[in-house]
Amino acid sequence: MTQPRTRIQQKNITTILDAALEVFSQYGYRGSTLDQIALASGLSKPNLLYYFPSKDAIHIALLSSLMDTWLDPLRAMDAKGDPKQEILSYMHRKLEMSRDYPRESRLFANEIIQGAPRIKETINGELKELVDAKAKVIKNWISEGKIANVNPHHLIFSIWSLTQHYADFDVQVRSVLAGKEDDPYPEAKAYLDLLFTKLLTP
């Protein structure tokens, strides 16, 4: 039987994962090293290896915990709710995640760009099944005349791209908006509300 972790062990694991998130989101998987993660965590490399046997193990642990957070907003889309509001609410939650979890967004983006070698099974399984199920909900709303005839899968893709852009290209966004908007998110929300409201109106 596996012994429960002590408070100190749990604290060290949390510290390592937070440091790894910072390093991976900045340098990508290939550009990151265990030495960098150990330095960022304030722990020795042997201490880090006590908890995680490899860089890959740390990366997988981060991605595994991230997937649930990433999929929760789409899970919350309610087939019984008002279609337009459900889709807008999903977009809002994704935009909030870009604002509140930019490192996590970049970690996920880097993994996908590399071909998703560590989460391909989840992408092909849980994520695809969820997207397909919600696309079916959107298709039903379209057939009932409640929203415009749009491609459900590409609607979801467009929400991903238009919200995650603000996290993944944060430096570019803030550089272009320098002197205009200290915080790009309020205007981004207003713009995306207008864009998707017009798109979805029959």
UniProtKB/TrEMBL annotation:
<dbReference type="InterPro" id="IPR013573">
    <property type="entry name" value="Tscrpt_reg_YcdC_C"/>
</dbReference>
<protein>
    <submittedName>
        <fullName>TetR family transcriptional regulator C-terminal domain-containing protein</fullName>
    </submittedName>
</protein>
<dbReference type="Pfam" id="PF08362">
    <property type="entry name" value="TetR_C_3"/>
</dbReference>
<dbReference type="InterPro" id="IPR001647">
    <property type="entry name" value="HTH_TetR"/>
</dbReference>
<dbReference type="Pfam" id="PF00440">
    <property type="entry name" value="TetR_N"/>
</dbReference>
<feature type="domain" description="HTH tetR-type">
    <location>
        <begin position="10"/>
        <end position="70"/>
    </location>
</feature>
<dbReference type="InterPro" id="IPR036271">
    <property type="entry name" value="Tet_transcr_reg_TetR-rel_C_sf"/>
</dbReference>
<dbReference type="InterPro" id="IPR050109">
    <property type="entry name" value="HTH-type_TetR-like_transc_reg"/>
</dbReference>
<keyword id="KW-0238">DNA-binding</keyword>
<feature type="DNA-binding region" description="H-T-H motif">
    <location>
        <begin position="33"/>
        <end position="52"/>
    </location>
</feature>
<dbReference type="InterPro" id="IPR009057">
    <property type="entry name" value="Homeodomain-like_sf"/>
</dbReference>
